[in-house]
Amino acid sequence: MRIKGDIIRSVRKQKKLSQVTLAAGICTQGTISNIENKNICDSLEILDAICKRLNLSLESVLDDNEEKKLTNLLNTVEELCNTFKHKEAQALLKESTINVSDFQNRELEIRWFYYMGITNLLGYNNTTDSLFYFYRADELGDANSIYAILSVNSLGIVYEMADELDKAQVYYEKSIEMLNKMTVKMPIKATKVYFNTAKFYSLIKNYEAAFELASKGMALNKTYQSLYMLDLLAYEAAFNAFMLSDDLIVPDYSSAKAFAAFNDNQSLLNVIKNDEKELKR
C-alpha cells in the first residue's frame, strides 16, 4: 500500500528513535527503510503497530483516499462487532461501494473478508457465506495476518454451532498454532482467538486447556495494559479453575464481576449471578 513515509520519518526523528529501535518487535529495519524512503508497506498490521509506537493515527499516514475510506469503514465495523452489533456492521459493509479487490493492500482485503464472514455468521447465522469468506481470508493470509488467524478461529465457531465438534477443534487448534508462529509482536486482537478457543475447550470439558488459554489472553492484555475482553477472559479463567479444583466451594468471580461492571456487560453479570446460585459444592 502507498503511505506517507515522510511523516513516519519525521516523527521517528522527533522522538529520537533509530530505524532499528522503531522496528524492534514489529518488523525488520529494512521494512522501516522501505516505508520511509519508498513510501510502501505490505502489511497493515505492521503499519498499525508502527503508528501506535509513534502515537500516530493509521489514517494520517495512508496515502490512498480509497484505502482510507475502507480503513475507516472497517474500524467502524470492528467497533460494532465488539459490542455485538453484527447486523448493523453487516449493513454498513453491504452499503459500501468500495471494491476491495481493486486494492493492492492484501491485509485490508483479508480484514474485509473476515468481517464479511463474522457479520454473516453472528448477525444472520449464514454459515454458507461465512464459510466462503473465512476460507478466502485464510487463503490470502500470511503467517503474521491476525485477520487470517481470526478467520481460521471463526471456522471453529461455524463447526461448533453446527455441533461438529471434531471439525471445530481442528480449526481452533490451527488458529492457536498460527498465533504461536507469528514473527511480529502478537496484536491485542489475538485475545479473541484465546477466548473463543478457551470457551470451546470448556465446552468439551478440557478445563485445563481452557484455563491455560484464558490465562494467556489475560497476560496479553497485561502486555498492552488493556481491558480488551478481559471480563470474558476472567470469567473463563474462574469457571475453569473451579472445575479443576475440588477445594473451591464456589468459583471466584470477583475479577470477572469487576471488569464486567466496568464494561457495563450486563449479560455476563447475569451469567455470573446464575453460576453463583447453581455452581456450589
UniProtKB/TrEMBL annotation:
<dbReference type="InterPro" id="IPR011990">
    <property type="entry name" value="TPR-like_helical_dom_sf"/>
</dbReference>
<protein>
    <recommendedName>
        <fullName>HTH cro/C1-type domain-containing protein</fullName>
    </recommendedName>
</protein>
<dbReference type="Pfam" id="PF01381">
    <property type="entry name" value="HTH_3"/>
</dbReference>
<dbReference type="InterPro" id="IPR019734">
    <property type="entry name" value="TPR_rpt"/>
</dbReference>
<dbReference type="GO" id="GO:0003677">
    <property type="term" value="F:DNA binding"/>
</dbReference>
<dbReference type="InterPro" id="IPR001387">
    <property type="entry name" value="Cro/C1-type_HTH"/>
</dbReference>
<dbReference type="InterPro" id="IPR010982">
    <property type="entry name" value="Lambda_DNA-bd_dom_sf"/>
</dbReference>
<feature type="domain" description="HTH cro/C1-type">
    <location>
        <begin position="8"/>
        <end position="61"/>
    </location>
</feature>
